[in-house]
Specification:
The chain is built from twelve helices and eight strands. It is of the alpha/beta class. The protein has a single domain, classed as TIM Barrel, CATH 3.20.20. The protein has an eight-stranded parallel β-barrel with strand order 1-2-3-4-5-6-7-8, surrounded by seven helices. Strand 1, helix 2 and strand 2 form a beta-alpha-beta unit.
C-alpha cells in the first residue's frame, strides 16, 4: 500500500502504554504511513518506544512541542535527532530566538529530523485565544507565527486545516503544512475545534495529515487507513 498518499498520513499513537501502541504499529507496518508519539506515550515509555517503532520500519514524528528558553529547546532538539526520529516540533510562540536555536541545533546532523513549529492548537478558537490575551482571529495568529517560523528557517508549521491555504500563500509551496484536526466525513470532532476531512485538507495543500482516533479506534485500523489513503490519493494537493 506504500504510496505518496500513504506517506502523507501520520497516525497519532495516542495510547497510554507501549504495548497498546505497538499492537497497532504491527498492523500498520509496511503501509507507508508515519506515526506520531506524543507526550503521554513518550513520558510513560521513553526513547525505547521510538526505537521499537523504527524497528518496525515506521517513521516517527516526536510530538513533544518543545517550548522553553532557547538553550533548553536546542538541547532537546539535539536529543531528538540522536533518537533518529523523522520529525520533531516546537511551539512557534516561543519566539524567534528559540526557533533559530532549534534550527541551528540540528544543522550538525547529516540526516536531521524535519523541524516544524506549532502555530495555534486545533483545540483553540477565538474565545480561547482571547482568554490568554491574544485578541485576534486564530487565522491571524497562525499567519503571524507561520511567517516568523519561515524567517527562522524551519521546515514548516503545524496548523489546522482551515489555515493551510493561508500558510501556503504566505510562505510558499515548499513550506510544510502538517495538519491535525483531520476527520473523515461522519467522524466525531472530539476535542478539536477547527477540523476538515482528509479530502478537503489535502485539496487545500496539506503535506501531512495527522489522524488519530478515526484510525486508532476503528474496528479495523488498517482498513480505515487504506480507505483514507485512497481518498487522499484521489485528491491532488493544491498548487500555489
Amino acid at each position: 500500500m506504500t504510496s505518496s498518499a500513504s506517506a502523507a498520513i501520520i497516525v497519532a499513537l495516542d495510547f497510554s502504554t507501549g504495548p497498546q501502541a505497538l499492537t497497532l504499529a504491527d498492523q500498520l507496518a509496511g503501509s507507508g504511513c508515519a506515526v506520531k508519539v506524543g507526550k503521554e506515550l513518550f513520558t510513560r515509555e521513553g526513547p525505547a518506544i521510538c526505537a521499537a517503532l523504527q524497528q518496525r520500519g515506521l517513521r516517527v514524528f516526536l510530538d513533544l512541542k518543545f517550548h522553553d528558553i532557547p538553550n533548553t529547546v536546542a538541547a532537546a532538539c539535539r536529543a531528538a535527532a540522536e533518537l533518529g526520529v523523522w520529525m520533531v516540533n516546537v511551539h512557534a510562540s516561543g519566539g524567534r530566538e528559540m526557533l533559530v536555536a532549534a534550527r541551528a541545533a540540528l544543522e550538525a546532523y547529516a540526516t536531521r529530523p524535519l523541524l516544524v513549529a506549532v502555530t495555534v492548537l486545533t483545540s483553540l478558537d477565538q474565545a480561547a485565544l482571547a482568554e490568554v490575551g491574544i485578541a485576534v482571529q486564530p487565522a491571524d495568529q497562525v499567519a503571524r507565527l507561520a511567517q516568523l517560523t519561515l524567517a527562522a528557517g524551519l521546515d514548516g508549521v503545524v496548523c489546522s486545516p482551515q489555515e493551510i491555504a493561508l500558510v501556503k500563500a504566505l510562505c510558499g509551496p515548499r513550506f510544510l503544512a502538517v495538519t491535525p484536526g483531520v476527520r473523515p466525513a461522519g467522524s466525531a470532532s472530539d476535542d478539536q475545534q477547527r477540523v476538515a476531512t482528509p479530502r478537503s485538507a489535502r485539496a487545500a495543500g496539506a503535506d501531512y495529515l495527522v489522524i488519530g482516533r478515526p484510525i486508532t479506534r476503528a474496528a479495523d485500523p488498517l482498513r480505515t487507513l487504506v480507505e483514507i489513503t485512497a481518498e487522499v490519493a484521489e485528491t491532488p494537493a493544491r498548487s500555489v
